[in-house]
Amino acid sequence: MPDLVQRTESINLRSRTDWGAIWAGMFTFIAIWSVFGLLGIAIFATAANPKAANPVTGMSWGMGIWAIVLTIIAMYVAGRETGRLAGVSNRHDGLIHGMIMFGLSVVATLVITVLGGSALNGGTGVAASAHSVYLLDVFSGLGWFGFFALLLGWLAAMGGASTGAAQKVQPASNLRDIRAA
Length: 181
Hints:
The chain is mainly α.
């Protein structure tokens, strides 16, 4: 009987998913990716063809590499914050939080893009006007760049979250116990 008690005490309970940390990581990703993504579009669109009516068509290589690097950095930072805010005790739980944050961020980015395309279109649907064709041109131009950006961003989100989760707060060495009054 003591052996049974000893075995049940050594089982570690898995922590619960902290959705607040995951949402905070998603908003962190969206903020970083939006601001610096627009910076990249401004730089590479202007450099590609400053007088063109649609400057996006000439910026494929530079913007593709920028999208990969930016996604890696934004996902790593967002994953690190997710792991830190989740307060999980091991890397595996941080990794799971990072994976969930990645999925939520990708879905949120797609929803924002579709809603933005619908708003540009006057609310009549995504596939009905020149604005939707413009959005399709942007997404079809991603190709391999989009795949590598998502793949490496996924790994960066999980790595960042597991790194953020693994950090323990070290107690200060100069603290003393206070005697009760």
